């Protein structure tokens, strides 16, 4: 649980999304409603908007790679988890690129760029800066500002938000909590997908010394360092 703080929404006018769409609904700026109450938790803001686009009239054949929904996609290709809501636990250009890429894929696969919705964590600083990723997201949640241990690097906060929204997956991008093996571990225990490497890979490769030893063990050339003479190790 994070610190008991009530954060007022800064009086910042949100501009229209930067990506034009043939769907008028997709050009509306996100609105916000309270996610957290005022009983000792940070007040979050999120908006639930439903966007839909009518699929083309042409019937889909068995060999057609395109499907109507993420659920149909999972069933057709033998998956086990349907992902329709994703928490964006990052900010800046990384979040922009991720949302745009998935939207493009969703349109090509489902003929619906909003088949997967994005719920973005937003600090007061990001909101004041009128960050582009806020406008691309379907919903946003206002989280505490300041250093990233209060927001994007706070794995307990991320888990709490993922449960409360709720979402089926979390994208942490790079930096912040994406480098903390605790995040994929606690999300896995909560049956929430982490869109990134498993905790075991983070433990093995996240530390620069450990990753250098792993590389040397696999005979991968590395730059000279104080442990260059380290022999093979068992993992």
TrEMBL record:
<dbReference type="GO" id="GO:0003989">
    <property type="term" value="F:acetyl-CoA carboxylase activity"/>
</dbReference>
<dbReference type="GO" id="GO:0005524">
    <property type="term" value="F:ATP binding"/>
</dbReference>
<protein>
    <submittedName>
        <fullName>Acetyl-CoA carboxylase</fullName>
    </submittedName>
</protein>
<dbReference type="InterPro" id="IPR016185">
    <property type="entry name" value="PreATP-grasp_dom_sf"/>
</dbReference>
<dbReference type="Pfam" id="PF00289">
    <property type="entry name" value="Biotin_carb_N"/>
</dbReference>
<keyword id="KW-0436">Ligase</keyword>
<dbReference type="InterPro" id="IPR049076">
    <property type="entry name" value="ACCA"/>
</dbReference>
<dbReference type="InterPro" id="IPR011764">
    <property type="entry name" value="Biotin_carboxylation_dom"/>
</dbReference>
<keyword id="KW-0547">Nucleotide-binding</keyword>
<keyword id="KW-0067">ATP-binding</keyword>
<feature type="domain" description="Biotin carboxylation">
    <location>
        <begin position="82"/>
        <end position="235"/>
    </location>
</feature>
<dbReference type="InterPro" id="IPR005481">
    <property type="entry name" value="BC-like_N"/>
</dbReference>
<feature type="region of interest" description="Disordered">
    <location>
        <begin position="49"/>
        <end position="69"/>
    </location>
</feature>
<dbReference type="GO" id="GO:0006633">
    <property type="term" value="P:fatty acid biosynthetic process"/>
</dbReference>
<dbReference type="GO" id="GO:0005739">
    <property type="term" value="C:mitochondrion"/>
</dbReference>
<feature type="region of interest" description="Disordered">
    <location>
        <begin position="14"/>
        <end position="35"/>
    </location>
</feature>
<feature type="compositionally biased region" description="Low complexity">
    <location>
        <begin position="15"/>
        <end position="32"/>
    </location>
</feature>
